[in-house]
Amino acid sequence: MWLSDTQKIGVALTTFGSLFMMLGVMLFFDGALLALGNLLFLSGLTLIIGPQKTFYFFARKQKLRGTICFLGGILLVFLKYPFIGMIVETFGFLNLFGDFFPVVLTFLRQLPFIGTLLSLPYVSPVIDRLAGSRASAV
């Protein structure tokens, strides 16, 4: 899959946004890092899939609860309530992007070391249950 230059910049912004959010959580919910991570993540997502598709993704009726929680969590982080904001934002993130977890799990299982680890007998059922994957009938 070939990415345009705008999409490459979007991938970089999304990656940096995720890193800033993880760093903000590790540094005891530093509000500035979390706010910067949120801005970078949203702008990167917009550059990757385009403004119109981003709007339609967040405005779908099935995703309304997730959208409200995700954007409300970002607002709480901006209003200097980073701990509560991240809890609300995480709930919204799981509601918005939870459908992608089985796809991500399938991709991770194809990687050399991680795939072997995720396919271990005691690990595989737990990961499948967390990701919501279904066992194939074949």
Give a quick summary of the entry.
The chain is mainly α and 138 residues long. 76% of the residues lie in helices and 0% in strands. It contains 8 helices and no strands.
Stretches where pLDDT is under 50 for at least 5 consecutive residues are none
SSE string, helices as H and strands as E: HHHHHHHH
- Multimerization state: single chain
Helix content estimate: over 70%
Mean pLDDT: 92
What is the makeup of the main sheet? none
Could you tell me the strand content as a percent range?
under 5%
Number of strands: 0
Structural class: mainly alpha
User: What's the end-to-end separation, in Å?
Assistant: 29 Å
- Shape from CA axes? globular
Q: Please tally the helical runs, counting DSSP H or I stretches of 4 or more residues.
A: 8
The radius of gyration over CA amounts to 17 Å
Helices and strands, with pairings:
Elements: H1 5-26, H2 31-49, H3 51-59, H4 64-78, H5 82-97, H6 101-109, H7 112-118, H8 124-131
Helix pairs in contact: 1-2, 2-3, 4-5
